[in-house]
Amino acid sequence: MVARKATRDMMMSAKVGCRNDSDMLRRSGFGFVFLLPLFACVLIVALFADFLPPLLGNYSGQRFFLVVQLVVVGGAALIFSCFAPNASGFFKNWPLFVLSFSFFVLSLPVSAGPYRWVEPGLYVFFFLVVALLGWAIWLRRYFVHASLLWVIVSSVACFLYGAMSLTVYAFAITGDFSNLIDVIPWGFVNMRYWSHLATWLLPLLPLSLLCGPLRFNRLWRLLVFAAAGLWWWILFLTTSRGSMVSLAVAFVAVLIIFGRLALPWFLISMRFLLLGVAIWCVLSWGLPGLIFDEVLVRGLHAGSSGRVPLWLEAFAMSLENFPFGMGAQSWLTHTILSDEYRVAARFGHPHNMYLMWAAEYGWLLIAVLLVFIAVTLRRLVVLTERWRCCRPDDLVLLAGFVGAAMAGFAHAGVSAVFMVPATMCVGFAVLTILWAFVLDAPHKNRAFGLVGRQLILQKWGMATAAFVLVLVGALWFRQVFHYHEAMEQDLVEYGQSNSALILPRFWLHGNYPRPE
């Protein structure tokens, strides 16, 4: 009993020290000078692109923002690590480092053409920078504050988007426009791209009422309830089965991992869901029924929406050059292998990220991805047991982010969650914060915890790594820009003769990597 009490006191002291350190670093500006603008820009670009200058178009502008975000944030994360007291735990990032490096290595044998590194570079930088920024946040023990910062900013953004959706709804109803899904959700070229964001963000909204300084404020609680109810309404309005199933999977998984500690989060999520049902009954069925002779409501169905032929074709591709895949973007240019796909509708991707990666990068990449998921889940279990007695509030935060990540990864099995730029921007923030939590799990490898001259050399090493990353990123951006120009030419050459070729992939328009 004495040993148990001493251990508990030690952990509580560590918690207090950690919080004080975070408070000090917050005053130094890491959170409000760096993370807050980053989070705000991500949500503005993802949700409110219609209000931004159309420099390169909605989808294209978001893609360029994502590319710049990854390069700049990756370099900044390494620079911030130079000013940390030490850089311990660097090699705890190895699962994401291996996953990032795998996209590069598995592109070497088969990729060809002047734009061969454009899309592999996207995945290389995405998972690499998730690791680097998550590590920079963890070094400052800022993961709790960063998570609260993201939850508050995203809750405000969701409320603003929901309130504006009500305005669009009012104009549609008063203008005798009964088919609401043609105008809601707004700001997206495809309503499924909005549902991707709902998958990432809906599991986080309950945290606004459970954690943070505003959770007891009545006006704030009303704002969050309104935001969540409106987002669930839009989800039902668009009948996004991918989001619904993914969120159900996430709810069950979180309850299994966290048990009773996740019940408050789950119960508030169910209250949000019921509120969304009530709003749907009023706005999508009741009120239109009083105004229009016929109410147009999308219905759920159990079909695959034409996905099965795409999945079969991607699986057949994955066996052609097993286990290495047929090369980046080969889905767009490969010779058709299955008769079912020959007569099926064509899309820029097979509506399954894992089968697409298996087809283009090989089953070796999927094996690496499974290792990453297994290591992450193991660390989460260890962290949960460590925090269960002394940090229950922080476990609630962790449960919400685990739910968001699991929903996102589940949704990727039926949609292009890791391809659409707005989705990747929001997913990047969610996964980064979750990874910062994961790094706090106990680990034997404490490398890079150096002092004196070695610490100085280490900091110079981080500064050099930042320079190299930004330099490589600039070269990648240059290739992305030239690829965009090539896609603009494809739009003129192929789009006028056949609009079916204007399909989403790296760019929304154009369908040919053009190796010449």
Instruction: Specify Rg, calculated over alpha carbons.
Output: 23 Å
Major sheet summary line? none
Q: What is the first-to-last residue Cα distance?
A: 73 Å
Kindly state the number of beta strands: 0
Q: Helix count?
A: 19
Shape, per Cα inertia axes: globular
Helicity level = 55-70%
Alpha-beta classification: mainly alpha
In N-to-C order, the SSE pattern is HHHHHHHHHHHHHHHHHHH
Low-confidence stretches: 1-27, 446-451
Mean pLDDT: 86
Per DSSP, what share of the residues sits in E-state strands of 2 or more residues? under 5%
Structure description:
- By secondary structure, this protein is mainly α.
- The chain contains 19 helices and no strands.
- The chain has helices at about 1-30, 30-45, 60-80, 95-105, 120-140, 145-175, 190-200, 205-210, 220-240, 240-260, 265-290, 305-320, 330-335, 340, 355-360, 365-385, 390-410, 420-440, 450-495.
- Helix 3 packs across helix 5.
- The model is unreliable at about 1-25 and about 445-450 (pLDDT under 50).
